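Hi V.,

You were right to ask for the full record rather than a summary. Here it is.
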Amino acid sequence: MESIINRIDKNQFWKFHGGIHPPEQKFITENKPIRTLPLPKELILPLQQHIGQAGDLLVSVGDTVLKGQPLTSSAHPMAVPIHAPTSGKITAIKDSTIAHPSALKEPCLFIEPDGNDTWVKRNICNDYTKQSDSDLLQKISDAGISGMGGAGFPTYVKANTSAKIEFLIINAAECEPYITADDLLMKEHSPTIVDGINILHQIIKPENVLIGIEDNKPAAIKALQNATKNLDHIRVCIIPTKYPSGGEKQLIQILTGKEIPSGAIPSSQGIVMQNTATCFAIADAVINDIPLIRRVTTVTGLGLNKPQNVWALLGTPVNFLLEQCELHPHDKQRIIMGGPMMGFTLPSGNVPVVKITNCVLAPSAKEISDESTEVECIRCGQCADVCPAQLLPQELQWSAKAKDHQQLETLNLFDCIECGACAYVCPSHIPLVHYYRIGKAEIREHKQQEIKADKAKIRFEARKLRLERDKKAREEKQRKAAEARKAKMNSGTVEANNEMSAVAAALARVKAKKAQTSDTTSQDSTTEAAAKPKNPQIAAAIARAKAKKLANQVTDNSDITAEVDKTVEAKVESKTPTENIADDKKSKVAAAIAKAKAKKLAKEQADEKTDVQNEITEETAVNDVSEADSKKAKIAATIAKAKAKKLAKEQVDEKTDDQNEIKEETTVNDVSEADSKKAKIAATIAKAKAKKLAKEQVDEKTDDQNEIKEETSVNDVSEADSKKAKIAATIAKAKAKKLAKEQVDENAEAQNEVKENAIIADTNIEAAALDESPQLEQLETTTDVSEADSKKAKIAATIAKAKAKKLAKEQEAEKSDNSQSDVEDTKATEKKKRIAEAVAKAKAKKQQRLELN
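Predicted structure:
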């Protein structure tokens, strides 16, 4: 350290890498004293004006405040309060544009000054040397002082260090062009600045205090030398003018020759640095109890008629400063906060002055030309040559554009001080600092998200562990309780016996409920005994009803046949002998056909009776078996009923086909007017039969429904059985739809047959009309094999083919239905089969007796 002091005493300083010499332009305001401005009409105070966190509000809209009154407060170490710059009223608390390159909006306080400038009560300190270090730090903190050189770091945090400090460096370089705020402050208030340095010296206790100032400020140098001539621990170091020698790391390197490693802070190297404006604010706060509510700001540029340094209250709109300095704007006027190298263009003039605002620049059109168009990098390397942090600006820019955050951190992006030297010398006019700022912001945001994600993960894992721990605790508690109950129950005491009885009773109730819900144990033996004798009686009644219906159908058919015979006999009596012979032969053929049809109907009716008996047998067998088997039997019975309905509908269709055949045969045989009348009579009879059959089908459906109701009333002994009946009804509906579709197909085939027969009949009628000679009539009557008979044979053959096709389709449908029912029937036991066979035999015998009677 001795060599460092010796070099400083000899004015021999170190150099830093890079740097530039831009036009200074300090002559505009360096000879003009600091001016005090009148109160503006409104003050806008952002809640956060420093690095760290914003404080909590102490006021609300409508409150009246005094000058110097704290407006926010926080116990967070990185939060400093803000104070009322003057007395007035809080008119609003809302988001407003702040001093930020991205025109960011943040919460702000709006104060309307009352013009009285009334102070809050203050405590003046005549001798700060008698104050303790903690009291001095508390006063600095309460005054809301943060770094005023540009960074805005809370001052009391930097001063409250436990490390051994060798050098306290006061930054008075003010290297940026145009800015003279610190220069004028040193000229006019150097004793107060020295008081602030002494307060910091008392708190930090450094071995040496160095004031670094550029040699382009001779008046300020002289003022500081006069103020420190009796202080041996303070040295005024006059360094060469070079931009950016006012940077923290650059000034440390110039004065001490030490380089601060990447990511480290100066205090780790035994160095603390403060700005001259910050020292002035510290002295004002400790001695005069004046918080940081104002600062010296350079308002400059050739666009102003009266550029000067002013005492600007915090929260003063920039527009008000420009009005006071008489701005004469041009078409492309830009307002820059900060210097031309590190400043940024404001989005509007309503942005307020904050703690780090050291300059407002309003250049003319000649001073700063329009922004040139950015072109591709030519890799000239000038940016790397002038970078004071020895970075690679071109590679940083490429990585920033590619959003390669990992590479940016590898290239030490955060070592960039954003001095703008690289952009100043770039021949491609690339705004390099702009890319660096965006990259830094993105990396900070990404890290914040990672921190939040890590915290959320920690909370999730902690919750998971807590839930597992609680689960294990519950299980252990339940296990111990069960063991305790078991031990108590095995103790043999009266209480244990009572508890065992209670447990046994609970188990019994559970078993009883289970027995009620199960299908196999829902009915007791008494209910079964009472239900068995009822089922055969009901089945017998149903069988008798069906037998009566079949008998009525046969009787009705015989009545219709008798009516037809009478009509034919009347017609025969009215004819001539020759016609009677022909008609007699025709009547014999018709009678033979009618007998065949009657046999067919009788056979179908017998089959239907057999199906009904099988249904009754199945139902009886189902009811005799257990309730579990009854469910399967009900399904089978429902399927059987559906088949019976299908057969009934097929009978109706067959009867209709027979009627159509009778019509066709009548049409073929009636070659005379008498025969045509017979055809009309036969058609009328066929219509009557069709109506009657339709009515019988309706009655049969009604009977079936009644049967289902009766069976349901007998078999539905519980709520579970009713649900099964609903399922069976649904199956029956599906099969009914299938049968309806099959009937439509069969009707279509029957219509085709009718059309073919009609064509044949027309041909026969024409032939009959041509052959009117008696010889042909005699030939027809005497010859057994005649042309008419051959035509009838053809017609009969056609009808037989149609019926064969129809029967084939019916057999296929029955096979598909039987296959489904067979699958279900195979599940029945051998006992059910034997019972079903016995019951079927008995029913068949009974049915035969009924038919004979």
